[in-house]
Each structure stands twice: as structure tokens, then as C-alpha cells.
Amino acid sequence: MSRAKAILCGSNDWMELLVNPVDSTVEMNGKTNNVSELLWNPPVSGTIYGTLLNYRGQLEKIKAELNHPPYNEPPKAPILYLKPFNTVTACNWPIPLPTGVSELEVGAALGVVIGKKAIRVYPEEAMNYIEGYTIVNDVSIPHESFFRPAIKQKSRDSFCPVGPWIICRDEVSDPDQLDICVYVNGELKQENNTRNLLRSIPQLVADITDFMTLSKGDILLAGVPEKAPLVKEGDHIRIEISEVGALENTVVPEGELSI
User: Where in this chain does the record put each Fumarylacetoacetase-like C-terminal domain (predicted)?
Assistant: First the structure.
């Protein structure tokens, strides 16, 4: 069992839990519960920052384009964007499919949770600023451009499931050696590993805090692997990250969801 913390529906308080990331179970009140048997709130208390082009395969896919306008050269610093609070939702809650949109893109990401104020952090010190890890689905409407901010495609309501918990930092042996798998309706659709990150987790934290402050509770998405699966109405998504757990959601037409 691994130490984690989470917020359950009906409470605004963080709970310390013992969880099994392999079989998605939680020990609570002397009983073992499956993740699907509990109602979760998203374990988010800060700002969520996404990182573009941080997987080697993703960068290779558009490498030729980066030497031409409007880019002119590959990026020298992390490319960041925000997932605003309206996008945040929890494990087992529905992902809305906007009217007139046929498919959504799954963005399986390791969420690095910051544990204390971090500014101008050296890579060798970066782990001391990490509280733990969670799973994030950086949902978006498929789009091609990395030049203009994809606000309409990435910032829709409930386009950022997070959870179900935050695994304590020391429960993860090496955040740069974690398997990431995406299942759609039980079928494996994507497989990658954080060893393929261009910037390791410590280097990413260092490079970002060189020009901006990260605060306690902020979540930094390490990146989304290439070949992101597409999903449609009724599809069930399960993102598994080794040693962290699994995040599950189902795609539902937005018109069927109560506001």
C-alpha cells in the first residue's frame, strides 16, 4: 500500500489514505474500497500548468515545421499553458462532448504537485519541492497549431479530469521511469514512458522556476505523449500511470449534463 491524500465529495478537507495504485483500491474505516465505489473531488488546490512538446516523439512529429515561420527555430524554454479552474473535474465524473464536435483528444499526463514555493530551483534540489504525483487527462478538441493559444480547444468546462489522489513523492521510485497507458473501452490505445521526456521532472521544475514562481498546490503537467487517442460519445477512458494509479472518466454529450 502507498500513502496518498485526497478529497472526497461532501468534504472540503484533505484525507490521508492508504491506496493500492495497481488495483485501484483504498483502505478506509477498516474496509477496502474500489476507486469506483467512492465519490471524489479533484485533488487540486493551485494552478494547473501544461507543458507542450516535452515528449521526444511529440517534438519529432513537428520538428521540420519548427524551422519555418511562425516558429523559425525549436523552443529553447518550456512552452507552458494554463488549464483554468473551470476545466477541472474529478475521477469518475463525465467529460462533456461539445455540441457539433465528434471527437475529443485524450491527453494522458503525469501531474507533478508542488509542495512549497519554488523559485530558481536547481535540478539537484528539485525533488525537495515536489509533494507528490497525480494523474491528469488534458482533454482537448483536436487541433494542429502550437502557435496560437488553443483556448477554445483546451479550456472547455470539465476538460481536465484530475485524480483520484495525490501519491506521496517518496512512494514513487523514479518519476522519470513511469509507464503511461491509455485504455478506451478496455482496449489499450496508447503506451509510453516518462523516460521519453525531453526535460526530466527535476530539469522541468528547474527550467520553469528560472523565470516564474511555482506555489504550493500547483500542478505541473510533465507533457502529453504523441499519438494521443481520440474518443467519442459513450467512450470510457482509463489512464494508468505505474506507481500512481488510474484515472477513469466517460465521454457524455454536454446536452445530457445538468448545469
Answer: 47-252
